[in-house]
Structures are given as structure tokens and as C-alpha cells.
Amino acid sequence: MSEFASKVVVITGASSGIGAATAKELSKQGALLSLTGRNKKRLAQVADECKKLGAKDVLQVVGDVSKQEDMERIIKETADKFGEIHVLVNNAGLGLVAPIATFTLDQFDRCFNVNVRAVLYLTKLALPYLEKTKGNIVNISSIGSTTYATKGFSIYCATKAACDHITKASALELAKSGIRVNAVNPAVVKTNIIVNIGFSEEQSKEMFADNAGKHPLNERNIKVEEVVDAILFLASDKATMITGSCLKVDGGRELVGQ
Ligand SMILES: NC(=O)c1ccc[n+]([C@@H]2O[C@H](COP(=O)([O-])OP(=O)(O)OC[C@H]3O[C@@H](n4cnc5c(N)ncnc54)[C@H](OP(=O)(O)O)[C@@H]3O)[C@@H](O)[C@H]2O)c1
Questions:
Q1: Which ligand 1 atom sits closest to the C-alpha of 193?
Q2: CATH number of the domain within which 179 lies
Q3: Which residue CA neighbors atom 25 of ligand 1 most closely?
Q4: Which DSSP helix (H) or strand (E) runs through 184?
């Protein structure tokens, strides 16, 4: 039996991409899931698939993690339903192209609110429950936190650098409570984030063709499942002495510095 069977896992941004794929894998392992996202229809679709795949139970909380009351509701509804929390996956995130000459403070606030503020506030809200279960947190960062400075991505990359530092600082602060905090830092992966950033189908095709060659390992793109494997490893008892780590899933891209 999987160690995640009957464990309560909160996943933000579960209506799409990496969050949805993580929810589906945990479903096969019989977890109890609390799934959140703003898009009610897509969240319900993912929840249905999770039930079919074997999730023991699935709670859907439609909410916007940039709003304080929604973050509080996500944790409260999870605790009301399941009574405990073992793992928090802070995955919800948005990317944007925001050149220095034209970016707006609204873009800055939106990106930091979701990618940074929500990570820290949800950590605070989940803390009393994770203390009881000696649970853990996995934050989804990016290799953009350290590896490359991409034109137009100064805000996004800064949010992910902040995410790495929140991961390390909270790992240190929460270690005395037996709570582990780690991050997974993927290279570019094909999900809706690419569409939402504004890349056309054609641009996205070109980018992924170009990106494949930037990964020294096998010169191919990263699969969503490979990111999920890293998340589940860090969340599992195989990582009992790992905390404050930012685990890159980048096929060696950082080694060549691009
Ligand atoms: N794909 C990549 O290349 C890549 C690389 C490195 C890191 N990452 C990180 O991986 C994480 C997941 O991204 P993804 O690639 O899976 O993208 P995605 O498919 O666009 O998924 C993003 C998820 O975040 C949710 N979300 C966004 N804003 C939200 C808000 N204000 N409140 C609640 N939920 C919100 C979205 O749900 P709703 O739209 O339903 O709200 C969606 O479920 C992000 O943190 C991203 O920065 C991605």
C-alpha cells in the first residue's frame, strides 16, 4: 500500500498542468485530496478523474489564492472535511511577459500575490495541522529562480527567487516542529501556463523545439510526470532528512548556464 493512502494532501492550482497531474498520481495511490483553483469547471473535471483513478475522497475548493479570505477558506474547508493535513503543495502560479519599459504595478502585484504571498500565507494557515501530523510542504518554484535571466521575465523570475528563499527560511524555522519544506524547480514544461503567458501555438512549438537542445540530458523537453515524480519524492518518507532543498528538474540545463 502506498504511504500516501489516506494522507490528506492540499494542492493549489490543481485545475491544470503540474497541479492536476500531481493530483492524478496521488489518486492512484489512494490519497485524500483537497484541490483548489479558480476555474470551477476544470477543477470539477480534474476531481472527477481523480475519483475514477482511486482517490479516497476529493474536496474541491474553488478559490483565488491572491485573496486572503479564499486562502483561509481553502484551509478551513479542508480541516472541516478531513480533520488533518499531511502535505501542502503550493503549486498555483502564473507567468507573464512584462518588459521593464512597459510593465505595470498591477502585473507586479498579481504575480507576487499568487507566486509569493500565497505560498507564505498558506504555509502559515496550514502550520497548526502540519505540526500535528509532522507533515511537509512542497513549493513549486522554477529554474527561473536562479538559472537564467530572460528578457521580459524579471517579475516572474523574482517571484521564483523569493519562493526559493521562502522555502529555505521556512524549512529552517519549521524544522523544530518536525515539518519539512522543500521546492521543486522545473525547467519549461508544456502546460497551460505557456498559453496563458501569451505564446501562440507557433511560438510555443518553436520554443519547445529550441528548449529541447538546452537540456544536456537526452536533449529533450521535460515531461510533466517527471516534475510530479520529484514532488512526490520530496513529499514522501523517502525524503525524511531532506528539508530546505530546491530540487531542479531541468535535464542538466543549469549546468550549461542558459
Ligand atoms: N510549465 C512550466 O514551464 C513551469 C516551469 C517552472 C515552474 N512552473 C510552475 O509550476 C506551477 C504550476 O504551473 P503549470 O505549468 O502547471 O501552469 P498551469 O497549467 O497554468 O497551472 C497553473 C495553476 O495555477 C492556478 N492558479 C493561477 N492563478 C491562481 C489564483 N490566483 N488562484 C488560484 N489558483 C490559481 C490555475 O488555476 P485556475 O486558472 O483555475 O485558477 C492552475 O490550476 C506554477 O507555480 C509555475 O510557476 C511551471
A1: 20
A2: 3.40.50.720
A3: 13
A4: strand 180-186
